[in-house]
Amino acid sequence: MFRQLLRTVPRQLRFYSSEAANEASKEVAKPKVVSSVQAGTVLKGCNVRKNGEDPVALADEEYPAWLWEVLDPEIQKAKLEADPIVAARKQRRELNRKKIKEQNFLAGMRS
């Protein structure tokens, strides 16, 4: 009974030493990617509020550093390699999406 209880209780494992993640973020301090518009340009159609105004583009230095990290696939890959739990979760989600698509496809063929 104890084994069955252990299987049902979600396990959470954390790695508190994040040296590899810190090293990856230090390398990205300088933005490799530059924004597609100049600072001060009004970004039409990007308004998300009902009565708000369109946002104005900022200079590249005014944006947070993590924004440039999101755009770089090499850094994202390094972060996944540094955290095996997140990598496993991402892989599990991809497999679930594929499985759902297959099931939906097969269900459509039966109808």
From TrEMBL:
Compartments (UniProt record): Mitochondrion
One Gene Ontology cellular component: mitochondrial large ribosomal subunit
Signal peptide stretch: none
Top-level lineage group: Eukaryota
Pfam families attached to this UniProt entry: Ribosomal_L37 (PF08561)
GO MF annotation list: structural constituent of ribosome
Keywords: Mitochondrion, Ribonucleoprotein, Ribosomal protein, Transit peptide
Keyword set includes Ribosomal protein: yes
Family listed: Belongs to the mitochondrion-specific ribosomal protein mL54 family.
Protein name in the entry: Large ribosomal subunit protein mL54
